[in-house]
């Protein structure tokens, strides 16, 4: 590799002194390098206009910028797009400081993670909900990899899609998608709480109520219960023994809220992962069991064992009820929001306010929700 340039220098043109040639070469190289350096520098600090994969230059001469001060470590990444695969991403996302506290002012943020197939029909309602609280939340969207969102630049959803893969209900690929959302959200050091939502979810309280409820809670809202019968313990396989005993088997809705420590626990796990992947297939519906069982075994005292997302299973069948505009008559949300006096546990006490989010709502319900959002939800 070294021979060609040496040859070039050793065989100088008479009318072109070798030293001058070398100087010109160095000068040219310097100009080229500083150009690339400026390019990467600017591209890092300007907003990326879309969430389609953007090929970044391979050579990045920005080490000096990165190490100059703490800011570069705690600033969220300027673009959510990256070329890490899951192994690389989870490794990077599992970095945890070993010193307690932060040597800078840290305002904990809530990461709202949307697990969707394609469009987010309820986005206008969410935009209304988020308005005015920019430094207290961040948004992440996992959708089918082929889906290209069309959000306005002014929307908080703009450019918030993460590198995604196909995820199927009831399969491990669904848990992978949830872990991918967590891992991407963990890259922002300010994210302290992680909420998983679907495209059919809506917020049913205003932002301040949601923020205070979540940040003020001693427990993470992961649904987790021991259900006898075919749809609970019946899905347990004795092949999981002795790692998981039948009495340790848990079920819970996948729509969770967990704190940063539990989020790291979820993405770093390989022990339970391989067992669930091997033995919880098909009718087992791994996305209803893997996180609740693992977290209940590892950190039972950090869990509220209930979800913050209301859903109506009362009609029976494998899918919960979906609500359209005509379902949303007077009092519909009052019944959800206040399920009755002191019905729910909160910080070892009781509260009327059980849920902050609800599903499932059909796209056709949006107009009615938008028109009445203040009456219904107070925003
Ligand atoms: C990611 O890339 C690394 C390095 O090439 C490789 O060892 C690892 O198996 C890859 N992981 C996945 C999930 O493809
Ligand atoms: C949010 O809702 C709560 C309870 O309904 C209310 O007390 C509070 O004033 C509302 N906050 C804002 C900023 O509207
Ligand atoms: C949640 O359940 C676990 C055991 O399954 C229990 O140890 C824990 O105390 C429960 N959490 C609350 C807030 O009651």
From TrEMBL:
It is found in: Membrane. Its main location: membrane. It is a single-pass type II membrane protein. GO terms for cellular component: membrane. One of its GO terms (molecular function) is glycosyltransferase activity. The chain crosses the membrane at residues 20-41. The keyword Transferase applies. InterPro entries: BC10-like, Glyco_trans_14. Keywords: Glycoprotein, Glycosyltransferase, Membrane, Transferase, Transmembrane, Transmembrane helix. It comes from the Eukaryota. This is Uncharacterized protein. The lineage of its organism: Eukaryota, Viridiplantae, Streptophyta, Embryophyta, Tracheophyta.
């Amino acid at each position: 590799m070294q021979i060609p340039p040496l040859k070039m220098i050793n065989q100088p043109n008479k009318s072109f002194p070798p030293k001058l040639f070398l100087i010109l070469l160095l000068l040219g190289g310097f100009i080229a390098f500083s150009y690339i350096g400026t390019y990467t520098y600017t591209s890092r600090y300007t907003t990326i206009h879309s969430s389609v994969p953007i090929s970044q230059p391979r050579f990045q001469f920005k080490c000096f910028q990165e190490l100059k001060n703490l800011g570069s470590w705690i600033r969220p990444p300027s673009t959510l797009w990256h070329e890490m695969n899951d192994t690389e991403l989870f490794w990077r996302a599992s970095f945890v400081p070993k010193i307690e506290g932060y040597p800078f002012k840290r305002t904990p943020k809530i990461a709202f993670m949307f697990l969707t197939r394609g469009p987010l029909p309820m986005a206008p309602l969410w935009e209304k909900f988020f308005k005015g609280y920019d430094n207290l939340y961040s948004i992440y969207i996992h959708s089918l990899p082929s889906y290209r969102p069309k959000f306005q630049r002014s929307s908080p959803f703009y450019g918030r899609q993460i590198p995604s893969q196909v995820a199927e209900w009831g399969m491990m690929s669904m848990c992978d998608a949830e872990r991918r959302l967590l891992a991407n959200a963990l890259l922002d050091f300010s994210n302290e709480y992680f909420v998983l939502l679907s495209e059919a979810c809506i917020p049913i309280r205003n932002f301040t109520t949601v923020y205070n409820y979540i940040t003020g809670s001693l427990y993470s809202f992961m649904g987790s219960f021991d259900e006898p019968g075919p749809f609970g313990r019946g899905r347990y396989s004795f092949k999981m023994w002795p790692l998981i005993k039948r009495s340790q088997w848990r079920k819970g809705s996948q729509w969770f809220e967990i704190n940063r420590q539990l989020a790291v626990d979820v993405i770093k796990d390989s022990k339970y992962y391989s067992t669930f992947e091997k033995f919880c297939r098909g009718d087992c519906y791994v996305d209803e069991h893997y996180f609740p069982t693992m977290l209940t075994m590892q950190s039972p005292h950090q869990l509220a064992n209930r979800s913050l997302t209301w859903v109506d299973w009362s009609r029976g069948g494998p899918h919960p009820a979906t609500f359209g505009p005509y379902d949303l008559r007077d009092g519909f949300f009052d019944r959800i929001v206040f399920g009755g006096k002191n019905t729910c546990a909160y910080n070892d006490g009781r509260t009327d306010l059980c849920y902050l989010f609800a599903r499932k709502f059909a796209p056709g319900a949006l107009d009615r929700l938008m028109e009445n959002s203040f009456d219904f939800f107070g925003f």
